[in-house]
Amino acid sequence: MAAIEPNQLTLDYRSGDAVPTWVREVIDTHFAIEAEDARHAGSLGFMARALVIATMPYKDPRTDVFKRQNGDFRLRIIAGYEGGIPYGIYPRLLMSWVSTEAVRRQSPEIQLGDTLRAFLRDVMDLRSSGGGARGSGSRVAEQVKRLFGSLITAHYTGSQQQRGFVLRNVLIAENLQLNDAELIGLWTPQHAHEAGRWQSQVRLSNGFFRECIDNPVPIDLRAYKALRGSPLAMDVYTWLTYRMSYTQRRSRPIRWEPLMMQFGCDYGSETNQAVRDFKKAFLKALKLVLAVYPQARVEVGDAGVVLLPSRPHILPPPVQHTLF
């Protein structure tokens, strides 16, 4: 196996002019993270552990039931909204924000904001809401309904000592208040005297709220948002951040087939070609992740991926010493 070092990072673009804007942002984010850690930069975020170990689909699965598997852990998402299963970039950004708000506020009630424009700008990093059925506002609205209408089951079949998931047929949200009377909007702009009284909001179910605050996975929101051009890279980042937080010794090779079951259900059945296609996509995503998290020590080879003890991307808070 060969270790991927930061200086071996290749983004598979031949000239500076060919580099997409979001990839340039990945590189810029790397320097910003080097200059200031997440806590001091105000970009400390969190993700629900269940959606880090196994993830949402990247493309519309066009089914009402979606399954992921990671060893003894199985995640099932059931559509509760007629549109289907949440997929792609928007539900990931939404879930990182909702999980972060739940941890910060220690409350299952999450305020979604006064206007769609502000939400898209401040949370989703989108500069224009766009109009019409294909506008970004409408796409976000669709994914909000899919995400917060979903029913999830997180089931772990390992030993009793390691059992840590009790999410059985749990709604992500118990209540969602949206105003989608406007085609391009989720939120109706408010008058100043109405602000704070009529905000759209979501109330997380107790089971999912407890998962968010009892087992949060800390992430750097700058890195997570910078990787939004690739949902797979977003997932690899949160997974690596989680795994490196407790990796104390060299791991056994994580074979490509199980990795595909965890990350790459969009590649179809476990044929040799599907595994090769997934491996190619995974390595491309991994190189992007290492641009924002270069401390992660990873070896890749024909047998799979090996994780080596690495500095966590989010360092634990300093110990507070007292005189007594």
UniProtKB/TrEMBL annotation:
InterPro entries: RepA_C
Tree of life domain: Bacteria
Name this polypeptide is given: Pirin
Origin species: Aromatoleum toluvorans
